[in-house]
Amino acid sequence: MRNCFGQLAAGVFFLQPSCIANAQVPNALERAIEDAQPCRSLKTKVSSFGISVEVGVDKLDSVKIENLQFSVNGNTAEASARGTLACKTSDEALVKGGFSATAEVRLKVDLTTCKMTETSIEIVKTGGRFGDIVKGLETEISGALRRSLAKNLAKLCEK
After folding, report:
1. Where is pLDDT greater, at 145 or 67?
2. pLDDT band at 16 (very low <50, low <70, confident <90, very high)
3. What is the pLDDT of residues 84-141, one digit of tens each?
């Protein structure tokens, strides 16, 4: 447990935006989200007149973490973050566009097992050409973010 806590504490330290870094350079948390490619699964096949075409807003445009709070009480760590994810269509898409979604994420972690015990991901604001359809993709977006959080937590607790 002690080793897990140390790894988690070190991870949170490195996830905080640096005061010295250029504001346009992604911090470690933003890079972790970029690596997870949360937009990748946001595509579907559309059929019309016997023709099937894959349509998707499946390319990551940007990630910005607005705030991150972290606390530890005994063997439970709690974190909450608010950030914006923007996805766009590929350059080859017939109809180009994108969306942005601002989400609030909360999680609890059992430091004895290094497992998430609770997660909550809520999309609170949308924008862009396809912003209105984001609510329909909320399950896919939330799932991708949840998988990214679990994967990165596992990396912190490996030793």
Report:
1. 67
2. very low
3. 989 998 887 777 888 898 999 999 999 888 888 999 988 899 898 888 777 777 887 7
Token pair 């005994």 is found at 74
Q: Which residues contact 159 (CB under 8 A, 6 or more apart)?
A: 3, 7
Helix (H, G, I), strand (E, B) or coil at 113: coil
How many other β-carbons are positioned within 10 Å of the β-carbon of residue 26? 16
Residue 3: pLDDT band with limits 50, 70, 90: very low
CA distance 134 to 139: 10
Element (H, E) at 46: strand 43-48
* CB neighbour list of residue 42: distance below 8 Å, 6 or more residues apart: 56, 57, 58, 87, 137, 140, 141
> CB under 8 Å to 111, separation ≥6 — which residues?
1, 4, 5, 8, 72, 75, 76, 77
Using CA atoms in the order 18, 14, 76, 111, what is the torsion angle rounded to 10 degrees?
180
Burial of 101 (0-12, 13-18, 19+ CB in 10 A): buried
Band of residue 2 on the pLDDT scale cut at 50, 70, 90: very low
**CA torsion through residues 60, 149, 72, 10, sign:** negative
